Amino acid sequence: MRCIKILRGYVFRLYPTEEQEALINKTFAATRFIYNYFLTEQLQLINENKKQKTIKEQLFAMGNLINKYPWLREVDKCALRVSIFNLADANKRKNQRRNKQELPKFKRKGINERYSINNFHRVYGGKAYDTIKIDIKNQNIILPKLNKVKISGYKNKQSISGEIKRAVIKKDAGKYYVSINVAEDITPVVTPVSSIIGIDLGLKDFITTSQGQKYKNESFLNKKRLKGLLKGLSRCQKNSKNSQKIKLKIQKLYQKERNKRKYMVDKITNEILADNDIIVVENLDIDSMKSNKEVSASFNETSMYEVVRVLKYKCEWQGKQLMQIGRYYPSSQICSVCGYQNPLLKDMHIRNWTCPACHNEHDRDINAAINIMFEGVKKYIKQLK
Ligand SMILES: [Zn+2]
To answer: Could you give the dihedral angle defined by the CA atoms of residues 272, 277, 281 and 286, in that order, rounded to the nearest 10 degrees?
Structure first.
């Protein structure tokens, strides 16, 4: 049996004491300070046409900073180190983007507050020692510097098997969370392939399958309420108590939306995977989609990318196969019954059509999904040869 290592994420709500909360916030501030410090230095070196510092040099310089600013010593040093690596990652991502001139942004207080730490796993005399330990049964986690913190979540689980790799502590809409990444060994059950499904990802109907199911693109953001809150915010004095309150309400609104969407993506992908062994989707070209003005507004509300990402790892875990086919294949223009290619269908507004060759009636998206499935079948047969 083939055994694979996967990285599974778990998110728990954290209930820090007042003291722990203060230390968490101090760590947010310290990691932000380090990140912004080295970003500032990076900009200076660019201006002076000088060579950039390596990570090794930055880590060394960080030691001097800690000596200069004793408050940095109070927080977990690992979190500070990770923020240097985060800056390096942000630079790497920038190089992959089209606009290479765009630099990483400075971190700001109150926005996306989080810090990451790695777990140090050692074994002495047959006993394992970890710096991050979780006890699901008693609902607590041990984190460096913070010690034991109360958590809630996954109460139906007895324990988490596998090695904790890292933890991210974050604040969202006034609440604290910890997400941990655990390396787990799993043996996917390899099932004989008995069914294949094609999926058309669209903007109007979020997902259409070759079996005729349609999932609507739901918007979970309460826009009316958001509009009201933003109006209220504009009337407030900047940084006043009232404006803080409204900001928190806005964060909660977005948090609710994210949670609902996550739930939706989970439900849809589970339904698709329940009865199918091979899932065929088109390769998404996110960049070109975003550049199309007409679709960009609704794009932000859809989670096509997320659906493909979730399908990918769930397939891997369940021993199923996600197949991606070239996006230049004209899946929506070809009649799935006779193969006639109808160029009129380049017009996205045509939702239903009758094939001029075989006179079959088609729903644009279902027809496309069936073609995508056929492409998958072709690819699958090629693999067998
Ligand atoms: Zn036809």
So the answer is: 70
Please name the amino acid found at residue 8. R
Cβ atoms within 10 Å of 186's Cβ, excluding its own = 16
Tell me, in angstroms, the distance from the centre of ligand 1 to residue 5's CA. Answer: 46
Query: In Å, how far are 94, 197, 252, 257, 262 from 229, measured between CA atoms?
Result: 34, 43, 12, 16, 24
Taking the centre of ligand 1 as the mean of its atom positions, its distance from the CA of residue 101, in whole angstroms, is: 49
pLDDT band at 98 (very low <50, low <70, confident <90, very high): low
Rounded CA-CA distance 324/3 in Å is 24
User: Which of 157-161, 353-357, 366-370 shows the lowest mean pLDDT across its residues?
Assistant: 157-161
- CA of 344 relative to ligand 1 center, distance in Å: 14
Instruction: Write down the domain spans for the chain.
Output: 4-21+113-186, 24-90, 196-384
Say how many Å lie between the CA of residue 378 and the centre of ligand 1. Answer: 19
Quote the ligand 1 centre to 369 CA distance (angstroms). Answer: 15
Six-digit token string for 335: 């009649």
Give the predicted TM-score (pTM) of the model.
0.80
Distances (CA, A) of 204 to 81, 261, 274, 352: 45, 16, 24, 13
Instruction: State the pLDDT at residue 186.
Output: 84
359 CA to centre of ligand 1 in angstroms: 6
For 196-384, CATH number?
3.30.420
The string of pLDDT tens digits covering residues 346-359 is 888 889 999 999 99
Structure tokens at 145: 């510097």
Give me ligand 1 centre to Cα 338, in Å: 4
What are the structure tokens assigned to 180, written together?
């941990």
